[in-house]
Amino acid sequence: MIDMERRKRVMQRSIRLGHCICNPKQPCPCEYFKEKNICTCAGERAESPTGKVELTRLVEKAGCASKIDQAFLKEVLRDLPEVEDPRVLVGVPAGDDAGIYDLGNGQALVQTVDVFTPSVDDPYMFGQVAAANSVSDIYAMGGTPMTALSVIGFPARKIPDYAMNDILRGGIDKMKEAGVAIIGGHSINDDQIKAGFAVTGMIDPARIVSNAGAKPGDCLILTKPLGTGIVAFASQIGKASDESVRAAGESMATLNKAASELMVEFGAHAATDVTGFSLMGHLAEMARCSGVDVEVIWDDIPLFEGVLEYAAGGILPGALERNKESCGRVVTADESLPQEMVDICFDAQTSGGLLIAIAASDCEEFLKALHDAGVEHAAVVGKVLEKGTGRIFLRATGRRRIPTIDKGKPSAAAVPVKPQAATEEVACCADAVTSTSSGDGNGSPMDEVKARFNAFLSAASSPHGLDAYTKQAMAIALSVATRCEPCLKMHLANARKKGFTQAEIDEAAWMGISFAGSPAMVFYEQTKGQ
Residues with catalytic annotation? Predict the structure, then answer.
């Protein structure tokens, strides 16, 4: 039952102010009120939506790709005052995975907080991934997580309520698996879904595994495959295989507990977990803090199924470009390595594995112990070279090659695809159909016919089995073949925005000319420069 007196009182206040009191960016009455006849400022609540939720479709950047990049973060933190407390054993200046506070008597607190957007579609699994990712910072230091506080941002009443319940339930179950008690939390109403935990653990001050202890001769072991950011992005645009999505999800939801316990047992010299700053970013920080140079063998890096094909097809998220900007200057890659291979090393990981530096004499036995404990993808990926300034040398043996895909664009055979609705291309003729409409705009039969035709044009132009780049080339060819001047001008402009070279545009146009003959050639030459 709507309290009309309350609604009237609240809306009158908003109207006098000229701003909605719930959201000052909106007028009153707002569009939501006009559409739903619900005034949220007056405490009125919409019914919760129902149906399946695909979380990664609701956010701009998936998982740890949503985090602020390393270079910007360092710049902003640079002038902040340092905490002057001798009990702080590891703090902000160290740039390590977690902070450590000495309690005395051989005990210390290890604390961290981690919050990010969904990297998987299923809400329950997202909760598990958020929990595994949050406790990973404790594990990376060699600590034991004890308690946690949950943090969640959720668009209340805009997606089904059960999704929030599932996220929290997934986190609780994963924390229970880790032996961590969730003792509270905080929630905010936020259009961008995000979740995470502030975690507190215990650690022996004499057995801290920091990111600053790597020694010349150490071998470098990575405990999980790379590619979660690439797989999540491929899933967002409908081009990920079910198998790669499943494998990445299971890996992200897996605790680094066993690897952490074993690295402490074997006396590892240094460790960090590989998350949003990428393998190169986190390794660069380890190398810099340890005062060493390191070598990574590209062919030995474990990867999720499909990652090579996605990279070859240009399915590379923007976060890796920000990571390259942050730490790319310290990375020297073999000239034989294709750029796509190098790019994978800068992919932002969500709930990635531990990167561990351990004495070469212990490496084989440690790796076997990891495999026996179920850390099946753990692999030696490189070594610490010598004292240095934190440089990374990315080497290749030639055992692994990037798949050959024409012009870096994925084929249906190389990359299994699902229909994709996130990006919609507007067909060139849609505006013309609308502008020449003779309907009265009041719902006449012809208005409905034209609206449906426009929807068909847009659907046909959107990427599905064929990617947007390929369809743009086809649109140029068809515009030339049919000699549609408005179409060609529009598609030439769109192609240039997408990064087509003139040579690629000409090649597409000549496909149309090859079907339509000399008149099409004359038409193209006359139109392309207009």
Answer: 64
